Amino acid sequence: MSKGTGPLSKLYNVTISTIDKFVPGAVQPLWQSPAGPRTVFFWAPAFKWSLVLAGLSDTLSRPPANISLNQCGSLAVTGLIWSRYSVVITPKNYNLLAVNIAVFIIQGYLMVKHLRWRSENSRNAVFNHSHYPIKSEDDW
């Protein structure tokens, strides 16, 4: 239960108290858990699984040329950082650990997919950069 006194805390407390009455006995250990559905420790990772689904969608449908290294790198690094965080906080949040490891693996795979594509197509690339209008015939 929330200890806050604001209107959203009151709404949350009323909602949880109402739902408490309908939770079956078999689910009570999860429901009462310090990282269970009554806390933010449950809902933040639950919604973060949408990043995993988006990454899986990208692995299946996004062409390697359209993969952003900056975005994938940022998500992979945050996956590593939050994975570490999830096991040092109290309570230990294994759902947060699982989702962040999944984010790291999927985003790392997308980075490798793009870098492979870049390596295979580097000879065919045309580098036109607006700040460097000098045309060079270098074969690098």
TrEMBL record:
Record's keyword annotation contains Transmembrane helix: yes
Membrane-topology descriptor: Multi-pass membrane protein
Record key words, sorted: Membrane, Mitochondrion, Mitochondrion inner membrane, Transmembrane, Transmembrane helix, Transport
Cross-referenced Pfam families: MPC (PF03650)
Domain of life: Eukaryota
Localization terms from the record: Mitochondrion inner membrane
Principal location class: mitochondrion
A biological process term (GO) from this entry: pyruvate import into mitochondria
GO cellular component: mitochondrial inner membrane
Transmembrane helix listed as a keyword: yes
Function of the molecule: Mediates the uptake of pyruvate into mitochondria.
Record family assignment: Belongs to the mitochondrial pyruvate carrier (MPC) (TC 2.A.105) family.
Record's protein name: Mitochondrial pyruvate carrier
Taxonomic source organism: Drosophila sechellia (Fruit fly)
